[in-house]
Design brief:
- By secondary structure, the chain is an all-alpha fold.
- It has 13 helices and four strands.
- Strands 1-4 form a two-stranded parallel ribbon. A two-stranded antiparallel ribbon has the order 2-3.
- The longest helix is centred in the middle third of the chain and has 28 residues.
- The protein is globular.
């Protein structure tokens, strides 16, 4: 391993180009074919590939519009999806947040946007159990890193770059809402492996709600935050009807699990905010900021 690291040091761009060239080819399938493609994508990302380009190629696979890389197909997508999500979590960890500035906001915005696109693939490709598992596991990791590094950095930049901060938080609404649907779907199909990941994901979503609320309150903008009920839905967006034996359990969760409340800026916004806005006169950026979880 040390010999390999010495040999490739200083040749990262070239190694990345070689990996991309391999992905442009069409290879014969086999039991390890998908894992081999995922390994190439991992090396490509580690040696110069832009995350936006890789996510864009996956988007073409999902949309069936034809990727520029023939090795990326629906059959190779699950392991590649896992690798890309892992790399995105790594990218988020690498962002320097010690002294937040404009670059920090830009990097966080890119990570959150890529995260939203990757989570949206679950909705477009229904019932891909490996991808759902990756979304639950790595989605939770992403949110944990965002909570520990990203949110404190955004809090420090609220007054200077409140529009960008607001944009990032609102962009995060869609994937967190859909991850909530994924937890409901996992429970409804009674998949033991997926259901085991649900409690921790729900706790992470709950913590995100509480910390965003606390951040806004710290900046005197509590009224910009409101809670809206989020119904249990499956991957297709259809409401999951509670079964009678689960009624008591569901009622208990509804009263105690804030992760079932998600951002919603399109419906019920005026009702959630109320008439009196304590930020209205004291904060110049409060008028156009409305973030509902």
């Amino acid at each position: 391993k040390q010999w390999y690291q010495r040999r490739v040091r200083g040749h990262h761009p070239r190694l990345g180009d070689i990996c991309r060239k391999c992905l442009e080819g069409t290879w014969e399938g086999g039991p390890k074919h998908s894992d081999g493609v995922a390994m190439l994508v991992r090396s490509w990302l580690e040696h110069g590939a832009e995350m936006e380009e890789v996510v864009g190629e996956l988007q073409r696979v999902v949309d069936k519009t034809g990727s520029n890389l023939p090795s990326l197909t629906r059959s190779t997508l699950p392991p590649v999806y896992r690798v890309v999500c892992e790399n995105l979590v790594g990218n988020l960890r690498k962002i320097s947040t010690d002294t937040p500035d404009e670059n920090t906001v830009t990097d966080l915005a890119e990570c959150v946007n890529n995260f939203a696109v990757l989570i949206s693939f679950i909705k477009q490709i229904n019932n891909s159990r490996p991808m759902i598992r990756s979304a639950l596991t790595l989605g939770q990791r992403f949110l944990e890193v965002f909570l520990s590094k990203g949110l404190p950095a955004l809090s420090g930049l609220m007054k200077e770059q409140w529009l960008e901060v607001q944009s990032i938080l609102k962009r995060l609404q869609t994937p967190t809402r859909y991850l909530h649907h994924v937890t409901g779907h996992s429970k409804s199909i009674r998949d033991i492996a997926l259901t085991a990941k649900v409690p921790q994901m729900k706790k992470t979503l709950e913590l995100l709600v509480l910390k965003v609320k606390a951040m806004l309150a710290a900046h005197g903008c509590s009224a910009a935050f409101w809670l809206g009920n989020l119904k249990q839905r499956d991957l297709k967006g259809q409401e999951i009807l509670s079964q009678e034996p689960q009624k008591d359990e569901d009622e208990e969760e509804a009263g105690s699990d804030i992760s079932e409340l998600s951002i919603d800026t399109d419906e019920g916004e005026e009702e959630g905010r109320g008439e009196d806005d304590p930020c209205e006169d004291s904060d110049p950026y409060s008028e156009s900021m409305s973030i509902g979880y």
